[in-house]
């Protein structure tokens, strides 16, 4: 697969992820909150903080998608192994950790309040798992891209 074709496919995946992220933040998240929180008299006050939480956790997600788009653009122009891309991957790793910390805080809050909805717990744990996996892999990729960039710079200097 050529770099431009790979870049186009990766950008299409980023657009699809962005679409589903927007769908989650704008429609699915508030609807889930409406179904679970507004039906209960005790939990109605949690609806607005729940929706705000969903929107706040969308911020690191969309920043990571924008950084991923920039990396894909660099891949398309045959500049995949650069220090700039290694730094972007490291930032994505940190954003994923931030996302995980936000969901750990939400899980702790759920346990303190005592509103154990298994669906919400399952989704939060799933998001937490994926944030850890993404953080580890982007950190590893950042290290590899940085090393490849250093090797490329050394080769450019010797030729």
From TrEMBL:
Record bears the keyword Metal-binding: no
Pfam families listed in its UniProt record: DUF2975
Keyword Acetylation attached: no
Transmembrane segments: 12-30, 50-69, 89-110, 116-137
Record's keyword terms, sorted: Membrane, Transmembrane, Transmembrane helix
Source taxon at top rank: Bacteria
Protein name per its UniProtKB record: DUF2975 domain-containing protein
């Amino acid at each position: 697969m050529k770099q431009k074709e790979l870049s186009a496919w990766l950008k299409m995946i980023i657009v699809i992820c962005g679409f589903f992220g927007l769908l989650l933040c704008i429609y699915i998240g508030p609807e889930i909150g409406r179904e679970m929180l507004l039906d209960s008299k005790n939990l109605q006050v949690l609806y607005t903080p729940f929706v705000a939480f969903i929107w706040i956790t969308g911020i690191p997600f969309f920043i990571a998608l924008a950084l991923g788009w920039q990396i894909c653009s660099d891949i398309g122009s045959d500049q995949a192994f650069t220090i700039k891309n290694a730094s972007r991957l490291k930032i994505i790793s940190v954003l994923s950790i931030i996302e995980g910390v936000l969901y750990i805080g939400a899980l702790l809050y759920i346990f303190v309040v005592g509103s154990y909805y298994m669906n919400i717990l399952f989704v939060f744990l799933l998001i937490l798992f994926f944030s850890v996996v993404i953080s580890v892999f982007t950190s590893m990729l950042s290290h590899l891209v940085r090393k490849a960039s250093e090797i490329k710079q050394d080769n450019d200097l010797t030729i």
